[in-house]
Each structure stands twice: as structure tokens, then as C-alpha cells.
């Protein structure tokens, strides 16, 4: 049992922290805590930032050398994630999708050509995927997708619709699940494809999220021709490849560090802000609520460390990753909600409003909470924990 | 970083579980509930042969020279079977403060006896009007020549009825509410002027009311400096709180394991109840609480073994979380078992009792949250 980091790991942490503090663009800080901003300016800043990380080799820290990685252990990834989250850098969902989810799957199932065209560029931050999973009729029940890909000579012809496709309007490729066998049982007729977003027949319809941003989209496919070489792995085995790949999915193990930062600022605020004749920090109920957040944040940290500890030993996190996801999103909800309660009427003040504490950070966080359904809802995660983690029978 | 137990830790933990499986059956628990002493001396003797009471005691005093993690693992194993007996009060509440604050002579006198299983200890701090904060101790100790005279009543003193030595906090100066003026006396449990009577408690543990009636204690029977006991007590409370976490983790783990097995086996509506999603989600919540409690406890213990300054906050964090988390686990375990668990014959209620009792000992959630708040600089 050991909860510490080695000297080399600590040195890496210092290196990352110094880099982050020096290199995060000042404009990014001016914009406020724009972790989830999704307008053109923040996108531009984010893309540049991700490329910068790519040049340092920090997007592919744990990848095998043959794919341009550094073969560092998962603890280094944890440290990188923690320091990134602590500073609040511009990187976000886009590199998570490409680097965290798509590339590891390509490493396992992709053809040599796919590996060669995708991995080096992705590791430099020069290539972005969106995820074409969900459809109007297929959310949690992902295996019921109805978008079809029909084989025709050297091509597949794609028809159907995806929805909630985050950054489809910015992505180079779509990582897509489609039905390739209409007669097979629903899990057995799916295949995975790499779809070039510039292919004729793709139409993107923007959707505005509750924070007011255009982050996700409807994507329509009308006789879109995909070259056969863009089929990933084996035809009709898509579901199993997907399930296996999801095990490798990196959960946001850095989020407790982001909460460290938020707590720190919250505490400073409470120590200097008077309400009803006393400092917030002297109010017993405020003290208790903040202390509870701090405890829960550390419980989450232990859960995240557990994920890394399992990976470090060459294991594949099973229920631990789902636990981390549920706990993170639910704690983020409680976190934001608690802070708004502590702030009282000031809790309503949104970004750029006069008097807004933390420039509205927690209002943004609060609004962001319902997005936790993305990546599999908490109910689905709990199903996974119970069935895969505890071996309870399927319902 | 590596959250798994080391080889040696695994060996200790597994051998402890083996031993307890043999020696500490549930029928024994039921016997001990109504036993005047509350523990089987035979089992205690065997534990001593294995070196358990001396787990953290240095080798020069006949101990195993283990660390806090070793202690935590033993307590976790004992928690799994809700093991009765003098281990906690003797080792956690006795050996640790003596190791921490005793003079070389005191250590030489007491620690080898503890390591041998020849001495049982108890810790008397609480009294009427105190929740958890020792600075409110009021019981006076008056100097009288070469001795102090203790008068007053202590509460929640586990194992006072069998203790050879009672560590008693009394006030030699100052007024209740002041941290100064507290003194830790080592009182012979069999001495004149010490009377114990049993309290009836939730977890069937043997907690006593102890009346000190002109009890005479020689001046050299003081642990630490007169009037300066508060710091020793703080450290002790922290260690005891974390040790309780370990017990609660063990106790809740067993309740949880039983519940997983039961959910796979019990059928209703022609299906195992574990296939119902409401049950599955309860169980998913239970494992999150379980893992959180376990690793918060391990982390704090690990930090204690290294004397890290953060250990104090980590211990409070662990205690603040574990009490509530393990209570929820035990309660849901009952719910998932249905009526059968309401039967005295099933053990589940023992876990339900133990986890709650643990959460009320050495600072509840509120108490430790306030400590965390102070550590955070609030
Ligand atoms: C911000 C955001 C970004 C997203 N980005 C993408 C993206 O880039 N690409 C993409 O493909 N998708 C994306 N999604 C979609 C996301 O994957 C789905 O929202 C999610 O899988 C849930 O599907 P649904 O919304 O259709 O809800 P539904 O599946 O209809 O679920 C509705 C409710 O029913 C519950 N439910 C459903 N089935 C079960 C069950 N078996 N047991 C218990 N409860 C159940 C759910 O938990 C939920 O509470 C995104 C979503 C969000 C919010």
C-alpha cells in the first residue's frame, strides 16, 4: 500500500504545473473559467492549446512507442490530468474523445493503414473525432441503432441519423456505429467506421445546449459512401469491439484536482465575505457544507486513484471506472448546488454580471450538471457496476 | 502509488481472518452478549500468542513493531466478525497513548504486559455534559500529599469492568472548557474507590459507568505532564477515530458480501432479486460507499505511518465519511434481505449495530466535519 508518488513522478508534476502556469493563454483566463465554453474563440484557443500539448508528447503519454507514444505509466497520465484540471486549461472534451476513446480502440482493432493515418496526427492534436453513437431512437440502448451501412463493392453506403453529436461541426472524422446486418439480433449486426466528415451527403444541423452554446448537433447521412478500408476491425463485430474498447476508456481521474481549486477559491471567498453580520466562514452550516464537499472530493480522489492503481498493475478497470464516473458527476452536481446555496441570492449571478462571485463559475457548473447523461447515464453506470462488478444477474 | 495490500499485509489480514473464522463464531458473539466479562479469555490468550495486542509495540517491549496499517488490518478483520473483547480498549486506547506519552519506565512497566495479553486497559474521558470534546472534562483531581484524589463519574468507558489499568482524564487545574489543566491518570482498575456498572448499549459492547469515589492515585501514576494532557488526548482521539473506521469498514464489508450472495440466491417473481434494477442500484451505491470508506481509512492510516502532517485531516475525513457510509450499507443490507434479516438469528443486525456504534464513538460526522473545516483554514 502506497499513496505517494515517486521523485520522478513528482518532478513530472512540477514540470507539468510550471508549463501550465506559464503557457495557458492569458486570453483564456480573461474569458473566465471557460472550461465548457464552446464558441469560436474558445475553440480556437483550445485547438492551439491541444496542439501545444501534442508537441510536448502529452496527448500520447501512455501510448506504445510504435504509435508515437511515450509508454509512460498510467500514474503519469493521472498526474497530467490532475495538473490540467487544477489549472483549468482550455483542453476539453475534444481531446478526450479522440485521445481517450477513439485512438485506444484503433490501437486494438484498427488496420495498419488506419493506425498510420490516424494515430500520429491525433497524437499531435491535428486530428479530431466526433462520436456517432446516439440516435433519436437509440440512447442508453445503443445497440438498437438504425443507421445502416450497406456493402456495395469496395464501399459501404451509409444512411440514417445521429444526434447529440458533440463537435460534429468541427471534427475531421466521425467514429460511427452503424447496422451492417439487418437480419441478425441487434447486438450482432453492428460495425464501426471511420467517416470523413467532408464526405458528400453529410448534413449537420446545430443544436444549442442549455448554457447557450452550440456544442452538439444532429447529423444526417444520405447515401454517404465510405471506403471499405474505413471499416474498423471486423464487420458485424462492432458491438463487441466497442464494449471491449470502452473498458479502456479513461475516466476523468483529474476532476478532484479541479475541485481542489474550486474549494480553495470558495474558502477564500467565505473568509472575506460578510453576510448577516458575520463572515460566511464563521457560519457553522457553511463550515459544515464546505467540509463535507472536501471530504467527498477526497473520497472521489481515492476512487480515481483506485482506477489508476488497477491500470498500473496491467489490469483493466471494471466497475471502478463506472464508479468514478457516477461519483464524479453526482459530486459535481452537489458541489455546484451547495455553492449556490452558500452564495444565496448572489448564487444567481451569471458570468459577466456585476457582483457575480467567481464570475459565475458555479452557475455554469450548475447548468452543466444535467449533462452527466453524456457517456452513459448514472442509471446505466449503476447497471454496469451491479452486473459486471458484482456479478448480479441480468434483469 | 499502489492501493493494494503488500504481500506481508495480505498475509497478516488473511491469517487474521482465518483465525477469527475459527475462534469467533456467531454463537460465541451471542454467548458473550450475556457474559459478565464479555469476552472469552481463551481467545484473548490466543490472540496474544499471535502477537496481536503488541501489534504496534516496539520489539524491545515484546511487541511486533508493526505500524498503523497493520493495526487497521487487524481491526478490519475483527470488524468483519464483530469480534468482542478487550483489544480496542487495550491496544488502541491503552498501548498507543503509553507509547506516545509514557516515560521509559512506564513503557517498560506497561507495554510488555499488554503485548503478553496480561494487561487489559480502559480509557475514561467522557462524562455527563460532554459530547466529544475533552476540554469540557470537569472531574476534579485534588492534590493530597504524594497523591491525587479523584472524585466523579465517567461514562462510556469500554471494558472498565475488566480493566487492570484505567487511563482517566481529570482536571487538576482550570475550568471546564479549558484545554489546560487536564491530566491523564493511570488508575489501578481494582483499586479502592473505583466502582463500575454496565451500561446497556446498542452494539452489546461492554461500556461502563465508572464512579471514582475518593480514589487515590499516586503522583507518579501520571501519563505525560500534569495539566498538559490535552494534546495526548487529541492524538489518541484521532487514532481511535481512525481505528473505529477500520472496524466499521470490516463490519460493513461482511454485511455487503452477505447481501451480494443473498441477492443472487433469493428468488421472487421467478427471478433472483439481484436481477431487479432497484436492488442492483442499491448495491451499486453500497459498493461506492464501501470503497470510499475503505480507501479513505487506508490513506489516513498510511499517512499516520509516515507521520505526515496531513494525517490528522485525513483521519477526520475518513471518520466523517465512514460512519455514515457504513450505516447506509448496513441499512440497505437489511432492506435487501427482507424480513429474514429482522430475525435475531441472522447476524446482520450485529453489523447494523456495530457500524452505528462506531460512528458515534470518538467524534461523529459533525464533529469531524468541523475539524476538517478548521484544517481547511475556515
Ligand atoms: C452534453 C452531451 C454530449 C453528448 N455527446 C454525445 C456525442 O458526442 N455522441 C453521441 O453519440 N452521443 C452523445 N450524447 C448522448 C448520450 O450518449 C446519451 O444522452 C445517453 O447515452 C443517454 O441517452 P438518451 O439521452 O437517449 O436517454 P435515454 O436512453 O432515453 O434515457 C432516458 C432515461 O431513462 C433511463 N434509462 C434508460 N435505459 C435504462 C435502463 N436500462 N435502466 C435504467 N434506466 C434507464 C436513463 O438513465 C435516463 O434517465 C451526449 C449527451 C450529452 C448530454
Outline the structure in words.
The complex is a heterodimer of chains A (395) and B (378). Helix content of chain A is 47%, strand content 15%. By secondary structure, chain A is an alpha+beta fold. Chain A folds into 3 domains: 7-91, Acyl-CoA dehydrogenase/oxidase, N-terminal domain (Butyryl-Coa Dehydrogenase, subunit A, domain 1, Orthogonal Bundle), CATH 1.10.540.10; 130-238, Butyryl-CoA Dehydrogenase, subunit A, domain 2 (Beta Barrel), CATH 2.40.110; 250-389, Butyryl-CoA Dehydrogenase, subunit A, domain 3. In chain A, the strands form 3 sheets. In chain A, strands 1-4-5-8 form a 4-stranded mixed β-sheet, with helices on one face. In chain A, strands 2-3-7-6 form a 4-stranded antiparallel β-sheet, with no helix packed on it. In chain A, a hairpin with a 5-residue loop joins strand 6 and strand 7 (214-227). In chain A, helix 8 runs antiparallel to helix 9 (284-312) and helix 9 (284-312) runs antiparallel to helix 10 (319-343). The two termini of chain A are 37 Å apart. In chain A, 46% of the residues are buried. The mean pLDDT of chain A is 91. Chain B has 378 residues and is of the alpha+beta class. Chain B has 3 domains: 7-118, Butyryl-Coa Dehydrogenase, subunit A, domain 1; 122-229, Butyryl-CoA Dehydrogenase, subunit A, domain 2; 231-375, Up-down Bundle (Butyryl-CoA Dehydrogenase, subunit A, domain 3). Chain B has 11 helices and 10 strands. Chain B has helices at residues 7-23, 26-33, 41-50, 68-80, 87-101, 104-116, 230-265, 277-305, 311-337, 348-360, 365-375; strands spanning 121-124, 141-144, 147-158, 165-171, 182-188, 194-198, 207-218, 222-223, 267-268, 271-272. In chain B, the strands form 3 sheets. Chain B has a 4-stranded mixed β-sheet, covered by helices on one side. In chain B, strands 2-3-7-6 form a 4-stranded antiparallel β-sheet, with no helix packed on it. In chain B, strands 9-10 form a two-stranded antiparallel ribbon. In chain B, helix 5 runs antiparallel to helix 6 (104-116) and helix 9 runs antiparallel to helix 11. The longest helix of chain B has 36 residues, at 230-265. The interface between A and B is large, with 51 and 45 residues. Bound molecules: flavin-adenine dinucleotide (FAD). Flavin-adenine dinucleotide is lined by residues 130-134, 139-140, 164-166, 216, 371, 373-374, 376-377, 379-380, 383 of chain A.
Amino acid at each position: 500500500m502506497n499513496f505517494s508518488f515517486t521523485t520522478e513522478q513528482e518532478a513530472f508534476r512540477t514540470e507539468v504545473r510550471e508549463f501550465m502556469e506559464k503557457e495557458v493563454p492569458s486570453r483564456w483566463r480573461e474569458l473566465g473559467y471557460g472550461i465548457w465554453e464552446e464558441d469560436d474563440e474558445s475553440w480556437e484557443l483550445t485547438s492551439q492549446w491541444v496542439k501545444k500539448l501534442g508537441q510536448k508528447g502529452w496527448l500520447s503519454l501512455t501510448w506504445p512507442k510504435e504509435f508515437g507514444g511515450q509508454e509512460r505509466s498510467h500514474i503519469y497520465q493521472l498526474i497530467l490530468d490532475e495538473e490540467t484540471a487544477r489549472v483549468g486549461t482550455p483542453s476539453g472534451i475534444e481531446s478526450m474523445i479522440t485521445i481517450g476513446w477513439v485512438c485506444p480502440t484503433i490501437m486494438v482493432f484498427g488496420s495498419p493503414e488506419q493506425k498510420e493515418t490516424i494515430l500520429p496526427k491525433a497524437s499531435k492534436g491535428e486530428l479530431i473525432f466526433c462520436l456517432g453513437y446516439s440516435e433519436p431512437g437509440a440512447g442508453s440502448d445503443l445497440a438498437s441503432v438504425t443507421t445502416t451501412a450497406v456493402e456495395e463493392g469496395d464501399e459501404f453506403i451509409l444512411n440514417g441519423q445521429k444526434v447529440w453529436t458533440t463537435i460534429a461541426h468541427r471534427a475531421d472524422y466521425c467514429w460511427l456505429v452503424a447496422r451492417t446486418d439487418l437480419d441478425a439480433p441487434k447486438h450482432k449486426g453492428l460495425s464501426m467506421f471511420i467517416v470523413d466528415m467532408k464526405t458528400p451527403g453529410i448534413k449537420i444541423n446545430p443544436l444549442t445546449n442549455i448554457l447557450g452554446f452550440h456544442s452538439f448537433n444532429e447529423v444526417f447521412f444520405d447515401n454517404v459512401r465510405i471506403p471499405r478500408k474505413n471499416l474498423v476491425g471486423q464487420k458485424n463485430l462492432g458491438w463487441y469491439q466497442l464494449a471491449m474498447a470502452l473498458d479502456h476508456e479513461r475516466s476523468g481521474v483529474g476532476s478532484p484536482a479541479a475541485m481542489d481549486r474550486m474549494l480553495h477559491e470558495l474558502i477564500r471567498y467565505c473568509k472575506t465575505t460578510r453576510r448577516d453580520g458575520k463572515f460566511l466562514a464563521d457560519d457553522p452550516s457553511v463550515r459544515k457544507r464546505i467540509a463535507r464537499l472536501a471530504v467527498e472530493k477526497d473520497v472521489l480522489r481515492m476512487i480515481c486513484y483506485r482506477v489508476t492503481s488497477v491500470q498500473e498493475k496491467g489490469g483493466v478497470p471494471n466497475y471502478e471506472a463506472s464508479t468514478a464516473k457516477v461519483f464524479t458527476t453526482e459530486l459535481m452536481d452537489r458541489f455546484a448546488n451547495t455553492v449556490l446555496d452558500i452564495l444565496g441570492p448572489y448564487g444567481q449571478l451569471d458570468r459577466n454580471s456585476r457582483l457575480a462571485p467567481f464570475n459565475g463559475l458555479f452557475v455554469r457548473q450548475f447548468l452543466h450538471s444535467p449533462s452527466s447523461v453524456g457517456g452513459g447515464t448514472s442509471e446505466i453506470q449503476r447497471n454496469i457496476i451491479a452486473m459486471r462488478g458484482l456479478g448480479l444477474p441480468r434483469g | 502509488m499502489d492501493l493494494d495490500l503488500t504481500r506481508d499485509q495480505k498475509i497478516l489480514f488473511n491469517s487474521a481472518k482465518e483465525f477469527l473464522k475459527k475462534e469467533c463464531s456467531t454463537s460465541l458473539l451471542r454467548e458473550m452478549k450475556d457474559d459478565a466479562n464479555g469476552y472469552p479469555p481463551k481467545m484473548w490468550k490466543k490472540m496474544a500468542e499471535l502477537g496481536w495486542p503488541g501489534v504496534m509495540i516496539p520489539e524491545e517491549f515484546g511487541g511486533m513493531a508493526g505500524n498503523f496499517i497493520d493495526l487497521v488490518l487487524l481491526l478490519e478483520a475483527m470488524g468483519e466478525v464483530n469480534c468482542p473483547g478487550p483489544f480496542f480498549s487495550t491496544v488502541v486506547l491503552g498501548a498507543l497513548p503509553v507509547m506516545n506519552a509514557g516515560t521509559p519506565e512506564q513503557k517498560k512497566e506497561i507495554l510488555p504486559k499488554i503485548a503478553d495479553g496480561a494487561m487489559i486497559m480502559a480509557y475514561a474521558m467522557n462524562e455527563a455534559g460532554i459530547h466529544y470534546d475533552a476540554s469540557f472534562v470537569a472531574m476534579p483531581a485534588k492534590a493530597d500529599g504524594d497523591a491525587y484524589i479523584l472524585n466523579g463519574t465517567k461514562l462510556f468507558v469500554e471494558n472498565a469492568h475488566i480493566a487492570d489499568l484505567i487511563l482517566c482524564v481529570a482536571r487538576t487545574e482550570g475550568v471546564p472548557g479549558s484545554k489546560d489543566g487536564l491530566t491523564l491518570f493511570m488508575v489501578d482498575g481494582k483499586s479502592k474507590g473505583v466502582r463500575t456498572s454496565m451500561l446497556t448499549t446498542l452494539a452489546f459492547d461492554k461500556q461502563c459507568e465508572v464512579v471514582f469515589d475518593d480514589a487515590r492515585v499516586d503522583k507518579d501514576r501520571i501519563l505525560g505532564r500534569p495539566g498538559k494532557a490535552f494534546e495526548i488526548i487529541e492524538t489518541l482521539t484521532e487514532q481511535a477515530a481512525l481505528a473505529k473506521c477500520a472496524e466499521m469498514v470490516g463490519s460493513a464489508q461482511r454485511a455487503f458480501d452477505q447481501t451480494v450472495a443473498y441477492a443472487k440466491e433469493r428468488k421472487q417473481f421467478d427471478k433472483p432479486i439481484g436481477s431487479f434494477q432497484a436492488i442492483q442500484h442499491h448495491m451499486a451505491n453500497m459498493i461506492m460507499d464501501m470503497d470510499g470508506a475503505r480507501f479513505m481509512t487506508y490513506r489516513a492510516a498510511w499517512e499516520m505511518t509516515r507521520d505526515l502532517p496531513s494525517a490528522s485531516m485525513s483521519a477526520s475525513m475518513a471518520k466523517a465519511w465512514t460512519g455514515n457510509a457504513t450505516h447506509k450499507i448496513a441499512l440497505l443490507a437489511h432492506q435487501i434481505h427482507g424480513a429474514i434479516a429482522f430475525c435475531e438469528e441472522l447476524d446482520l443486525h450485529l453489523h447494523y449495530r456495530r457500524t452505528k456504534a462506531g460512528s458515534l464513538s470518538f467524534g461523529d460526522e459533525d464533529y469531524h466535519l468541523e475539524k476538517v473545516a478548521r484544517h481547511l483554514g475556515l
